[in-house]
Amino acid sequence: MKYILLGISLLLAACGGGKPADITPVQPFNADRYLGKWYEIARFDHRFERGLSQVTAEYSLRNDGGIRVVNRGFSTEKNKWKESDAKAYFVDGRDKAFLKVSFWGPFYSSYIVIALDEENYQYALVTGENKDYLWILARQPDLDPAIYDQPVEKAKSLCFATEKLLKVNHQSSNTAP
């Protein structure tokens, strides 16, 4: 019986796609306008990005209708680039900014755009399946402080611990591969 419960637990974990109850994904969402390169402006610290600077995410269409995600960051400690490739799929249709993303195997996590420069798609506020994850992304490596404050205020209004945001350094002589 315990093996059956373990199997069910693993299956549920593989599904991913959860979101905090008070989080509403951006809608309408234009996936084609979201594609391309984004710079990570600020984030909550996590082991998978710890110590990385010059972090970018590049989104492109996959042949199966999903989105290819390529994250890159420079580790100053190891003096080398770290790159991860993932696949993402819409949870509730392409016009809602709620995706499930997998960096390996059948295991998915949520990717939810909760604020967006809807006119120009120049900045985005993204969270995961819970409020331990938060990213501010922009089309340029620097974001004007007045514009930066907009997603931060949105995150505060949703009770994210914005004092934990780490700004990402994009200044270096290293260039992405």
What tags apply to this protein structure?
single chain, disordered N terminus, Lipocalin, eight-stranded antiparallel barrel, 9 strands, 177 residues, alpha+beta
Q: What is CATH's topology name?
A: Lipocalin
Sketch the major β-sheet: 8 strands, antiparallel, barrel
DSSP helix count? 3
Highest CATH level, the class: Mainly Beta
Report how far apart the termini are.
49 Å
User: Could you say what the CATH architecture is?
Assistant: Beta Barrel
Percent of residues in helices comes to 10-25%
List SSEs in N-to-C order. HHEEEEEEEEHE
General form: globular
CATH superfamily: Calycin beta-barrel core domain
Structural class by secondary-structure content: alpha+beta
Number of domains: 1
Low-confidence segments, given as residue ranges, are: 1-15
Strand content: 35-45%
Oligomer: single chain
Number of strands: 9
Strand adjacency order, main sheet? 1-2-3-4-5-6-7-8
Any idea what the radius of gyration is? 16 Å
Task: Explain what you see.
With 177 residues, the protein is an alpha+beta fold. The protein has a single domain (22-167), classed as Beta Barrel (Lipocalin). The protein contains 3 helices and 9 strands; from the N terminus they run ααββββββββαβ. The protein has an 8-stranded antiparallel barrel with strand order 1-2-3-4-5-6-7-8. Mean pLDDT is 89; it is low at 1-15.
